[in-house]
Amino acid sequence: MSGSNSSAPAGVPPEPLGLTVHSMPRPELDAQARRTRSGRLKMLLVLLVCASPVVASYFTYFVVRPEGRSNYAALIEPPHPMPALTLSTLEGQSVPADSLKGQWLLVVAGSGDCDSDCEKLLYLQRQLREMTGRERERIDKVWLVTDTQMPPAALQKAVQDTGAAHILRADAMQVAQWLQPAPGESLASHIYIVDPMGQWMMRAPLRPDPAKLKRDLERLLRASASWDREGR
């Protein structure tokens, strides 16, 4: 019959009916994803706002600077953040590494059996802080003793007499992951300048000229005046 043309030929099984299943939207998941993205964006904005004064001051000092100005001390690029140092007093009391943050640091590192070169660096460290005048309250002196030797009592007293001094025992390998001497020199050959965030960012040359190093330090203090205050 003519009306039977739509039926399947004899012997051929009918094709199964195909169905496409679409997942249903999940409003609660979409809302959660939007909240997550919004939270991340807000956190990023907060971090940018907090970091902007630091970035701006460093940009001004290291990039937008008068023609002909050059740093006397070696600039460390990028700065080396302070690792999780294991620190203790000479008497063995543990000291958190983060407790050093919040001040500019003038760091000397080396053996407790301090030779004449070491003593000169410690003297220069003290003089540099005093030479900055009223800004010295933004600077601490740090002597990291990287072995088991006990520094002479008279030398300890001389370091601590002017205040803002930390004599701490530190693991030599950990310190070497943070501070690095000039090629061919030892860790104990330099004064290292660390910013209030714990980033090592300058290294004084061998047998430095105090006046030139003081100028570098004063420029750093001026550049960071908008966000760094004395005391922790």
Walk me through what this model shows.
This protein is an alpha+beta fold. The protein has one domain (47-223): Glutaredoxin, CATH 3.40.30. The chain contains 5 helices and 8 strands; from the N terminus they run αββββαβαβαββα. Strands 1-8-7-4-5-6-2-3 form an 8-stranded mixed sheet. Strand 5 (139-145), helix 3 (153-160) and strand 6 form a beta-alpha-beta unit.
Question: What is the fourth-level CATH superfamily?
Answer: Glutaredoxin
Radius of gyration: 31 Å
Topology order in helix (H) and strand (E) letters = HEEEEHEHEHEEH
C-alpha geometry: globular
The level 1 CATH classification is: Alpha Beta
Average of the residue pLDDT scores: 83
Gap between N and C termini, in Å? 100 Å
- Counting H and I runs of at least 4 residues, what is the number of helices? 5
Which fold name corresponds to the CATH topology?
A: Glutaredoxin
Helix content: 25-40%
* Multimerization status: single chain
Beta-strand share of residues: 15-25%
Number of domains: 1
Low-pLDDT ranges? 1-6, 59-68
Number of DSSP strands?
8
Question: Which structural class best describes the helix and strand composition?
Answer: alpha+beta
The second-level CATH architecture is: 3-Layer(aba) Sandwich
Largest sheet: 8 strands, mixed
Q: What order do the strands of the largest sheet run in, or round the barrel if closed?
A: 1-8-7-4-5-6-2-3
Transmembrane segments: 44-64
Organism: Azohydromonas lata
Keywords: Membrane, Transmembrane, Transmembrane helix
InterPro entries: Thioredoxin-like_sf
